[in-house]
Design a protein that fits this description.
two-stranded antiparallel ribbon, 28% helix
């Protein structure tokens, strides 16, 4: 989502970015056909131009990201060796304390 200052304000983008993951939202918008197919989505032939967004049920902040919990030690080591990146990991204790998420 980006602000065009006509239909989508900077305040709306800031509000949308602050919505926690796993929240239930009601999104209104206009369906359009993009000029080029969207390769990073399952619906490649349509695009939603958001005009309104409302939070129906705000989720509590998760104790960790599922992507971080799924990351193996080999992936962490490879990222550190190749790019010098430090990737987040989740300890076994945190995973066990939050079994419903994992």
């Amino acid at each position: 989502m980006f602000a065009d200052d006509v239909k989508v304000s900077k305040g709306m983008v800031k509000y949308a970015c602050g919505i926690p993951k796993e929240s239930i939202v009601d999104v209104g918008g206009i369906l359009t056909c993009p000029e080029a197919k969207i390769e990073s989505a399952t619906q490649k032939d349509v695009e939603l131009q958001v005009t309104s967004i409302r939070v129906v049920s705000r989720a509590a902040a998760l104790p960790f990201e599922l992507v971080d919990a799924a990351r193996s030690d080999a992936e962490v080591a490879a990222a550190a060796a190749e790019k010098g990146e430090v990737l987040s990991t989740v300890s076994q204790d945190v995973r066990l304390d939050n079994r419903a998420l994992d």
